[in-house]
Design a protein that fits this description.
14 strands; 55% helix; YaeB-like fold; five-stranded mixed β-sheet; Rossmann fold; 4 domains; Arc Repressor Mutant, subunit A
């Protein structure tokens, strides 16, 4: 029986439950005070936390490996540490549970949750599943309360990745198993999405119009809309779009090696002109994809080779995947059911010398996830995007110049108004001075007339006798 790897979401209900028991989760002696709590909880584990209740319902065994997924917060991590401590003692685990703090998974920050947290969650799941595959562990994903906003994502991920998922009803210890979806990807049909997924990953966001153009229209968008999420007026990759993109990347980079015997089988069916040659070629191309390998992994007693069963046919592929080399070693290709039933139990990995394996490369474009046309399409996108950026920069510069000229015009208008005001003031001053000048001229004229009259009188007096002058001087008023 294979060792179990149990991956569960970890919430903070344990903090509230401990407070109800009069235990301060932040106290230094919390570990000692938990001793009594976990002994009391043996009969009713759900009173401690949903996570402990779920592990109890799963009949957690000492050799199980438990992984706790917590939010990217101190509270979430502290709660996970308490659950780790309780689980280790309650179930006498040989290995302490491991805490995975998911980067960006903050429930109070919606933007970071969508842009970073969910992607980190998918990447963490992929890593844990890859480790389990290498160590030949049996994976179970548990939803036991915890981080409620991620439950739909965890459930969908598990079903798409063909991983057993269990759900625990609150306040009970009854487990409900959710079976994997009976789906497989049509990789030929999805190959055209690589350029789109890579472009969104490179740019982070794409406007709706550009996304529809890349996809080829509204109908195709509706078919694959689950790969994208709306962000304002733009679209970004959903966690499942990111998951598919990571599979494409690994599929493209994985090298396939054939043992001498597997190469012999492939050469034989090619020489015979058998339909098995394109069939095996498709299998080898698809086997590079970790998603496909997980879906098609077939349990077979008696060998330590991984066996992949493509469908309800007799053909089988056996070998192993090296994570460090990102290489897939194909040890055996079986053309019929009877032969693999008879031959496979004798085969062990140690009997194969990897140095004698030869590299296999796909011959047809259907098996190449990045065709030349797609690569050229990406280059055209890059050129078009570069031109778009240049145009936007020019438009931004023109807009800046327009703004500068507008500001200059406004300054000139203000200066014009100031000059008009000063001119109006000067005009008023000129009118006042003109009026004063007229008044002064009138006064001067009057003075001149008076002076003339006085001068005339003085001239007349010059001819007077002395007696008359004395009389005028004595009696004038």
């Amino acid at each position: 029986e294979r060792r179990r790897r149990i991956i569960i979401t970890s919430g903070t209900s344990i903090l509230r439950n401990l407070e109800k028991r009069g235990i301060d989760p932040s106290a230094k002696d919390v570990t000692a005070r938990l001793n009594k709590s976990w002994l009391e909880a043996q009969e009713t584990p759900h009173t401690l936390s949903a996570e402990i209740s779920g592990l109890h319902a799963l009949e957690c065994r000492p050799d199980d490996r438990v992984f706790l997924l917590s939010t990217d917060t101190e509270t979430g991590e502290n709660a996970a540490r308490l659950i780790e401590h309780l689980a280790r003692h309650l179930f006498a685990l040989n290995d302490p549970p491991e805490i995975e703090r998911i980067s960006g998974l903050r429930l109070e920050d919606v933007d970071e949750f969508q842009k970073k947290g969910l992607r980190s969650l998918v990447q963490t799941f992929d890593r844990l599943l890859d480790e389990a595959e290498r160590q030949r562990e049996e994976v179970t994903v548990g939803i036991f309360g915890g981080i409620k906003p991620i439950i739909p994502y965890v459930a969908t991920y598990s079903m798409f990745r063909h991983v057993p998922l269990v759900y625990l009803f609150e306040r009970t210890d009854r487990l409900i198993s959710l079976p994997p979806l009976p789906l497989d990807f049509d990789w030929n049909a999805l190959a055209d999405l690589q350029a789109v997924l890579r472009e969104i990953d490179r740019e982070t966001f794409l406007p709706r119009g550009k996304l529809l153009n890349l996809l080829g229209g509204e109908e195709r968008f509706r078919e694959v809309s689950w790969l994208f999420e709306v962000e304002g007026e733009n679209f970004t990759l959903s966690p499942f779009g990111q998951m598919l993109l990571e599979d494409f990347r690994q599929m493209e980079e994985t090298v396939v090696y054939l043992s001498p015997r597997a190469k012999g089988v492939l050469d034989d069916v090619k020489e015979e002109g058998s339909s098995l040659y394109p069939y095996f070629s498709r299998l080898l191309a698809r086997a590079r994809n970790p998603f496909w390998r997980r879906q098609k992994l077939h349990s077979f007693v008696g060998t330590d080779l991984d066996v992949w069963k493509p469908g309800n046919t007799g053909e089988r592929v056996a070998g192993w995947y090296s994570k460090t080399e990102n290489a897939l070693y194909i040890a055996e290709l079986y053309r019929d059911h009877d032969r693999y039933e008879r031959d496979l139990p004798k085969q062990k990995r140690k009997d194969y010398d990897p140095s004698r394996f030869v590299e296999w490369k796909p011959e047809s474009v259907f098996s190449d996830p990045m065709t030349e046309e797609e690569k050229e399409g990406i280059e055209r996108i890059k050129i078009a995007e570069k031109r778009r950026i240049e145009v936007e920069e020019k438009l931004a510069a023109a807009e800046g110049e327009k703004k500068r000229l507008h500001e200059q015009l406004e300054a000139m208008e203000r200066e014009k108004e100031e000059i008009a005001g000063r001119l109006s003031t000067l005009e008023g001053e000129r009118a006042r001075l003109a009026e004063e000048q007229a008044t002064l001229q009138k006064t001067l004229h009057e003075l001149e007339e008076r002076h003339e009259a006085l001068a005339a009188q003085e001239r007349a007096r010059q001819g007077w006798s002395l007696l008359r002058r004395l009389s005028w001087a004595l009696f004038r008023k």
